[in-house]
Design brief:
heterotrimer, A mainly alpha (283), B alpha/beta (364), C mainly alpha (254), A: mainly alpha, Serine Threonine Protein Phosphatase 5, Tetratricopeptide repeat, 13 helices, C: 254 residues, mainly alpha
């Protein structure tokens, strides 16, 4: 713009507008940077590099990953239900749950449902374990998830992994949203995996911290029994060999109203299970 | 506005017609105090040469440069014009002459490539220049979903009226232009004529001191045109300055104090209607019967002629000073005189003559 | 004052246009549909309702911006309605600000209505206490729409309706990836880093207005987040409108 044009009213207005735009633009950049660094916000994905998985989908949802996750959840539930009533083959289930949980990493029920569905109907414990560990990686402070993973190890078809079960029960018991039974499950698992010292410590904690009088008494009883067994050198009195869980539901259930329990009834979102494996009921 | 072939136009100053310089005309007819418009590019930041004028334009030019071919099209070339307060000036010209371009530059919708202009003493670049302005654009369109009264209230308030006053004026003007019966009708349902009238109301609702109207009669039936004429007369009585463009010559003849003729982006002539029309000599036609065998006397050759028309003889006298003589001669010759009709040249003929002269000058 | 007049007129035009009414109806239908679908969600029905509802508000609002906002100025120029306004003693910036404010107000109304309906649904489902989270989420969605409206107004002042819709949509899409671009820029080599950072700053920082993850669980966000989002929205809108003004001042209306 020539100097003459600057005197011109329109030129002045344009110049003012440009200057204002530049300063406001700089301020906007600063604020955006601040939000990027300072706010713990939804950060769906860190990389735009293509992964053949749910990670690539995140940017495509244009900020609506949660909704996409919900729609994927519906799809996953449908998938489970369809195959549960027909051929009992769940080849794509791991992938579906992987996408779903990539889109919404904090969607805890998805991990739980997926984990158990994969472990039992899907007969793919490794995939279930991966999914649950992924969940814990994204939600390290979730007592719910830790507990469910512990339980998954506890009922692992073909052989319980009591050590790991106990590890995760313990982790669960330390979280703010710990299920109330986490501590004593940890103690129980430790006890029957042979680690009596740890079990004793855990029972002690239950005895001291449980609000339930019955549970405190039960804990005291177990502690007494452990002490006696150790004194008498008869570990076998308190360490019992638990039965091996079998894979459940080996034949497809026909889709008739009477015989099918229905997904809602048999798989409540992350809660109690009616114990159908060997070993005592856990509620 | 694109003027095909205008690129061949030579810059010849402000134009000359029939021996009279336009500047001289302006000095005599506008009383601008003998001030000569500045030649070439005026100094930026200059204040209005004469703030008492309603409209003051100096050397306005508008060039369009095609973004790709970089060809320059001249929409308006070096237009200088003064309009005194209270006067009615008509802008005449064929389509593409630059009438709308001029009006848009004055109302701030276009930026002039060169030159400056002032409305009511304020430069057109400032919004203050439009405070006393009422503008009616060519083919006005409005918001589909407002109704008439809402629209008028909106524009009244935008022009600076307070809410209460705006409401009253809006209702008044809506009725005044004949749309008052259905004030809540949405503008989407208005006919072309109704839109034109609403546009007029919108231009007048805030009682402006200067009216700029672009083809105000377009789209109106004869009743509508008469109403608009009356409105303009009314405003003139109140001392409002009116500048309007038109190519309907009879209206211009009836309404305007002065006329400015634009051709191909240049202002070729500004004069009063009387001057323009009274330029030509008055001819007279005498219709008579029985004059078929009459011989026109030799001394009148070239100034008197006879034509046969519809069974009558029509004696055409070019110089009205001969009228009495000719009449006496006809009566003496025993011819039955039916009618004596003065032939005043209309604006139309003068307009055509000006256009022809311009065309001749261009080819010369 | 003048911007308010223009804004009020724009609001009227926008709300009387069938588009906005249609969008509200579509939003309500969507919310109703969530109730039909939610039994299939195994107890996650509330989450589904909230997610779909908030997504609906955002996308329907975006639709209004793309259809109405981009023709806001361009259509007026095309149909010459703008001559009636700009020949008045108003400045072009006042006109643009008024246009933006009017359409933003219309969008806030839509967001508010649909947000209210969403809360009603959620409350009926037993989680009336989610109100603060929903309020914040709708507020942020409204801010996002305001920012996109400013972009639409700017492009509309420069270009035709169709092109400005495309530009606005482009900025919206890339804006959703703003954080991803910044993350990528941090890991990129030098020359690319500058380019990516510039791009990330040019487009609106839309993830800042996204708290759908929290709202799905009924959780509120921090006051810092809300303050930052509000400040950013105001500043970005201001910047965009100033640019629009600079471009609009020199525009000729042939």
């Amino acid at each position: 713009m020539s100097p003459a044009a600057l005197v011109h009213p329109r030129g002045r207005r344009m110049l003012t507008a440009w200057l204002a735009a530049l300063s406001l633009g700089a301020a906007a950049c600063a604020l955006a940077d601040l939000s990027w660094r300072g706010l713990p916000g939804p950060r769906p994905l860190e990389e735009l590099a293509y992964y053949p998985s749910g990670k690539a989908l995140g940017p495509a949802t244009l900020g609506h990953a949660e909704t996409a996750a919900d729609l994927a959840w519906l799809r996953a539930v449908q998938y489970y239900g369809e195959h549960r009533t027909t051929d009992n083959r769940f080849e794509r289930m791991a992938h579906v749950f992987d996408i779903l949980t990539s889109l919404s990493p904090s969607f805890v029920p998805a991990y739980v449902f997926g984990g158990f569905a994969l472990a039992q109907e899907g007969r793919d414990f490794a995939a279930a374990e991966r999914l649950m560990l992924k969940g814990l990686g994204q939600n390290p402070t979730s007592g719910e998830l830790a507990f469910q993973l512990g339980f998954l190890y506890f009922v692992r078809p073909g052989g319980r992994d009591l050590a790991r079960a106990a590890q995760f029960f313990e982790q669960a018991s330390l979280q703010p949203d710990a299920p109330p039974q986490a501590a004593r499950f940890a103690a129980y698992a430790r006890q029957h995996s042979g680690d009596l010292a740890m079990a004793y410590a855990l029972w002690t904690r239950v005895a001291e911290t449980s609000p339930n009088r019955y549970l405190r008494e039960m804990a005291q009883r177990e502690m007494t029994r452990i002490r006696e067994a150790v004194q008498r050198g008869r570990r076998d009195m308190v360490v019992r060999r638990l039965t091996t869980p079998a894979v459940l539901w080996q034949s497809p259930v026909p889709a008739t109203p009477e015989s099918q329990p229905g997904p809602a009834g048999s798989r409540p979102a992350g809660g109690a299970k009616s114990g159908q494996d060997g070993g005592r009921a856990v509620r | 506005m694109f003027c095909p072939g205008a690129s061949a136009l030579r810059h010849i100053g402000l134009g000359r017609l029939e021996g009279l310089d336009v500047r001289e005309r302006m000095q005599t007819s506008t009383g601008a105090g003998g001030e000569r418009p500045a030649a070439g590019r005026p100094r930026r930041g200059a204040s209005c040469p004469n703030p008492s004028l309603a409209v003051c334009a100096r050397g306005l030019s508008k060039h369009y440069i095609h973004p790709w071919t970089r060809r320059t099209t001249r929409g308006l070339e070096d237009l200088s014009l003064d309009v005194a307060r209270g006067e009615v000036l008509g802008l005449l010209g064929p389509n593409g002459a630059g009438k709308t371009t001029t009006l848009k530059i004055l109302t701030g919708l276009l930026k002039a490539t060169r030159g400056r202009a002032w409305l009511l003493g304020e430069p057109v670049e400032e919004t203050a220049s439009r405070r006393g302005l009422g503008f009616l654009p060519e083919q006005p369109y409005f918001y589909d979903y407002l109704n008439g009264i809402e629209y008028l209230e909106l524009v009244a308030r935008l022009s600076g009226l307070q809410a209460q006053v705006a409401s009253e004026r809006a209702a008044h003007w809506l009725a005044r232009v004949g749309l008052g019966e259905r004030p809540r009708l949405v503008l989407r349902k208005y006919s072309k004529g109704m839109l034109q009238r609403l546009g007029l109301a919108a231009a007048l609702v805030h009682d402006p001191d200067l009216l700029i109207l672009d083809e105000p009669m377009s789209g109106l039936d004869p009743f509508g045109r008469r109403d608009v004429r009356e409105l303009i007369f009314e405003q003139r009585e109140r001392g409002v300055t009116v500048l309007f463009s038109s190519h309907i010559l009879p209206d211009v003849e009836m309404l305007c104090d002065r006329v400015a003729i634009l051709l191909d982006g240049r202002l070729t002539r500004v004069a009063t209607v009387g001057e323009l029309v009274g330029d030509g000599r008055q001819a007279v036609e005498i219709r008579c019967a029985g004059g078929a065998l009459l011989e026109i006397p030799q001394r009148w050759a070239g100034r008197v002629s006879r034509v046969e028309r519809a069974g009558e003889a029509v004696i055409r006298i070019e110089d009205e000073s001969l009228l009495q003589e000719a009449l006496a001669w006809l009566v003496r010759s025993g011819v039955e005189v039916h009618a004596v009709t003065p032939q005043r040249p209309t604006l139309e003929t003068l307009f055509m003559a000006a256009a022809e002269a311009e065309a001749e000058r261009r080819t010369a | 004052m003048i911007p308010l007049l223009v804004a009020r007129n724009t609001f009227r035009e926008a709300t009387r246009d069938r588009l906005v009414a249609g969008v509200v109806v579509a939003g309500l239908v969507l919310l109703a549909a969530t109730q039909v679908v939610s039994p299939l969600a195994l107890g996650e029905g509330r989450r589904l309702t909230v997610d779909l509802g908030l997504t609906g508000i955002s996308f329907l609002g975006l639709l209004v911006v793309l259809l109405a906002g981009t023709s806001l100025v361009a259509k007026e120029v095309e149909r010459r309605t703008i001559y009636n306004l700009l020949s008045r003693p108003i400045t072009r910036p006042a006109y643009l600000v008024g246009k933006w404010a009017g359409l933003s107000a219309a969008l806030w109304s839509v967001a508010g209505l649909l947000g209210l309906a969403l809360w009603a649904l959620v409350a009926v489902g037993g989680a009336a206490g989610h109100a603060p989270a929903l309020l914040e989420a709708v507020y942020l969605a409204g801010l996002e729409l305001t920012v996109v409206t400013a972009l639409a107004v700017m492009f509309s002042a420069l270009s035709t309706p169709v092109l400005s819709a495309l530009y606005t949509l482009g900025f919206y899409v890339v804006g959703q990836w703003s954080y991803d671009l910044r993350g990528l820029a941090e890991k990129a080599p030098d020359q690319l880093r500058v380019l990516l950072s510039a791009l990330a700053n040019l487009v609106p920082n839309l993830p800042l207005f996204n708290m759908r993850t929290l709202a799905a669980e009924g959780l509120v966000t921090t006051p810092l987040h809300l303050a930052l989002a509000t400040a950013y929205a105001l500043v970005y809108v201001g910047c965009v409108l100033c640019l629009a003004t600079a471009a609009f001042e020199s525009r000729d209306f042939k």
